[in-house]
Amino acid sequence: MSEIRAYGSSSASSSKSAPKRIRVRHFNRAKREGLKITGLTSYDYLSASVFDRAGIDFMLVGDSAGNTVFGYETTLPVTVDELIPLASAVARGAQRALVVADLPFGSYESGPLEALHTATRFMKEAGVHAVKLEGGVRVAEQTRRIVESGIPVMGHVGFTPQSEHGLGGHVIQGRGDDGIQQLLADAKAIEDAGAFAIVLEMVPSDAAKAVTEALNIPTLSVGAGPHCDGQLLVWTDWAGFTTGRIPRFVKQYAQIGQALEDAARAFQEDVQSGAYPSSEHEYE
Questions:
Q1: I need a surface site. Which of 4, 110, 199, 208 has the fewest CB within 10 A?
Q2: pLDDT, tens digit, 9 for 90 and up, residues 254-267
Q3: What's the confidence (pLDDT) of residue 17?
Q4: pTM to 2 decimals?
Q5: Is the pLDDT at 272 greater than 90, yes or no?
């Protein structure tokens, strides 16, 4: 059995000894052995602790916090100073899962030295185990510089939310022969630069399959179909917090948002009616 799966088992997580930490080497082993990797975003200690106990392999402190935590319209306004406290909380909550932090927009684009500086801050101040940055060929040098400094890097190609204005909105990438060739070139550039895994977001399944078969490192799907080596989702999407239109690739496993709203309404009604607190909630 792959170590990445053994570490995720209930017997491992419930052991009296400290659970073994998933490392980047376990990602490559999982790809070799054909075992799927699971990832969820997390932005706080409580959710990180829950996902860790459930056996999720890695947690991404994504710049999606811009939408889910800070209420921004896009991920673009998020800053390093905003993400570091969130990443620190997740790192404290994850006893066995690998914790990856997004490098936010504007914190690595100017070149390798800026990228290394930002990545170093996340490693030193937040205690994460790896960083992620968006882009293919255009960020290969940044990726290489970070990796050469001993910091693991997860890549991200296909639809890259930080570039949504340049891409013309939420547009599926990797369509047609030219699109697949560009996707392959970007993915190979990031692999060659030393990344240990790469996210493929919003690309057709056949394109994702081609990339997955062409790479030696694992591919992680965000709306890229079943042929990738693992799956990554924003946890507030699949948990039912997101209202209105949700991406097609999201499966909602719970309706926690509605459950919280119902509980808040019940509390408000009980307080107004005097049903809470009752005698059982009083101290003698």
A1: 110
A2: 999 999 999 999 99
A3: 63
A4: 0.92
A5: yes
- Residue 245 is predicted with a pLDDT of 81
Q: Which of 201, 261, 269, 284 is catalytic?
A: 201
Q: Is residue 262 annotated as involved in ligand binding?
A: no
Q: Is 16 annotated among the ligand-binding residues?
A: no
Residue 81's nearest CA partner among 60, 103, 100, 96 is 103
Q: State both tokens at 260.
A: 């919280």
Do the beta carbons of residue 30 and residue 37 sit within 8 Å?
yes
Question: For tokens 């052995």, what's the residue?
Answer: 33
Annotated binding residue 102: yes
* Pairing mode of beta strands 230-233, 197-201: unpaired
Lowest model confidence (mean pLDDT) among 8-17, 23-32, 86-95, 130-139 = 8-17
Per-residue pLDDT tens over the stretch 179-198 = 999 999 999 999 999 999 99
Task: Tell me whether residue 280 is one of the annotated catalytic residues.
Answer: no
First to last CA, the chain: 56
Residues 6+ apart with CB under 8 A from 16: none
